[in-house]
């Protein structure tokens, strides 16, 4: 059973999510929070597998709440941030704070359910089309500097895969681009995450842009 916490300041939004998730036999909503302070307290108390976290909430915003929960070791919960807009400057901040991905509030119910299952299973929710736009618009990429020591430990193919991941490509798209199997791409992703000490591909995207390995808008 996947245990979910709903954090949103709008009662109707929480009710809608609860209604959708109540129909799923493998998902249980274990709690709700109306602001960031409540979200942090509830997550620490209930230890949900996944928290759906609204970005804009009173008292403590979703980004700060995500940073507190994802910053602990091990993380209290895996967080999927919710936003009303597909291009939102705050989304990048949420990814940097440790969120495992983001989802539009107007996404179809099946996408919400799929997102929860994916993140609960250790995956990262990166919609390729939206992610490319968000990263290219808002990634505050530093000027290129010395290559971080850990990057030198990557093979040429692993570095190539990292570049593709940072541009928002899915494993299937990377496989088609590199003319290899999807399973091979998955192996490369797992190895590069291990070498760089990263939790998931969301962290890989942030890492690549912040280290100047990929520049916003680069082809």
Automatic annotation (TrEMBL):
It holds the Pfam family GerE. It comes from the Bacteria. Keywords: DNA-binding, Phosphoprotein, Transcription, Transcription regulation. PROSITE patterns: HTH_LUXR_1, HTH_LUXR_2, RESPONSE_REGULATORY. Residues 3-120 form the Response regulatory domain. SMART domains: HTH_LUXR, REC. The modification 4-aspartylphosphate is found at residue 54. InterPro entries: CheY-like_superfamily, NreC/VraR/RcsB-like_REC, Sig_transdc_resp-reg_C-effctor, Sig_transdc_resp-reg_receiver, Tscrpt_reg_LuxR_C, WalR-like. PANTHER family: TRANSCRIPTIONAL REGULATORY PROTEIN NARL-RELATED, TWO-COMPONENT RESPONSE REGULATOR. This is Response regulator transcription factor. It comes from Blastococcus jejuensis.
């Amino acid at each position: 059973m996947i245990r979910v916490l709903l954090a949103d300041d709008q009662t109707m939004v929480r009710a809608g999510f609860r209604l959708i998730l109540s129909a799923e036999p493998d998902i249980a909503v274990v709690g709700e929070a109306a602001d960031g302070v409540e979200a942090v307290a509830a997550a620490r108390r209930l230890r949900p597998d996944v928290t759906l976290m609204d970005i804009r909430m009173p008292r403590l915003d979703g980004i700060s709440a995500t940073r507190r929960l994802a910053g602990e070791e091990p993380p209290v919960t895996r967080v999927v941030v919710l936003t009303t807009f597909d291009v939102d400057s705050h989304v990048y901040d949420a990814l940097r704070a440790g969120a495992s991905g983001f989802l539009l509030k107007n996404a179809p119910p099946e996408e919400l359910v799929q997102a929860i299952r994916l993140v609960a299973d250790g995956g990262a929710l990166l919609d390729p089309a939206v992610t490319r736009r968000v990263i290219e618009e808002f990634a505050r990429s530093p000027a290129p500097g010395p290559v971080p020591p850990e990057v030198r430990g990557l093979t040429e193919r692993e570095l190539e895969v990292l570049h593709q991941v940072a541009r928002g490509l899915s494993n299937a798209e990377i496989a088609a681009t590199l003319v290899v199997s999807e399973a091979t791409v998955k192996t490369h992703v797992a190895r590069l995450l291990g070498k760089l000490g990263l939790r998931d591909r969301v962290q890989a995207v942030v890492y690549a842009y912040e280290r100047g390995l990929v520049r916003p808008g680069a082809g």
